[in-house]
Amino acid sequence: MDFTRILRHLFTGPLAVRKAFPATALTAIEYAIAQSEFSHRGEIRFAVEAALDMLPLVRATSARERAVEVFSQLRVWDTEHNNGVLIYLLLADHNVEIVADRGIDAKVGHEKWETICREMETHFSQGQFESGVISGIRSVGGHLQTHFPAGREGGKNELPDWPVII
């Protein structure tokens, strides 16, 4: 049991999320997702969670495991071309995870997603949360544009663009 992690999660709450992501940042992130989705047929969601509850902490639930749960809860997998992507931030750990549906994940692969996550975490370590998320959205969008470019029909927005605060 990692007591340091437990303490960090106990003392990271909704106020930390509001400080890192004020309303203007959330609006900018929503706009970045909407803009990105004009160039491809994929779907991007961003979710931030302040900290894990005690039971998942005691069970040593990883950010990756939690991200997969959130991917399912937000139904990011429920897209026509299986090309939904979740960018998940566990704020207490400053850990970013990208969970991609099978249609895009098979084309991009784990290493490229990890590179995007580490670049975002570099921004976060410097206190640049908004720019870190927007940079990640652009990088994910670039992969989606390569493999699922927008067609003449324009495509429909299958998932909401607004950031989710858990």
TrEMBL record:
Q: Which InterPro entries match?
A: TPM_dom
Q: Where is the TPM domain?
A: 24-140
Among Gene3D superfamilies, the record links this protein to:
3.10.310.50
**Record field: transmembrane:** none
Q: Which residues form a coiled coil?
A: none
Q: Which PANTHER family match?
A: BLL7265 PROTEIN (PTHR30373:SF8), UPF0603 PROTEIN YGCG (PTHR30373)
| UniProt-recorded name of the protein | TLP18.3, Psb32 and MOLO-1 founding protein of phosphatase
Q: Which organism was this protein described from?
A: Nitrosospira multiformis (strain ATCC 25196 / NCIMB 11849 / C 71)
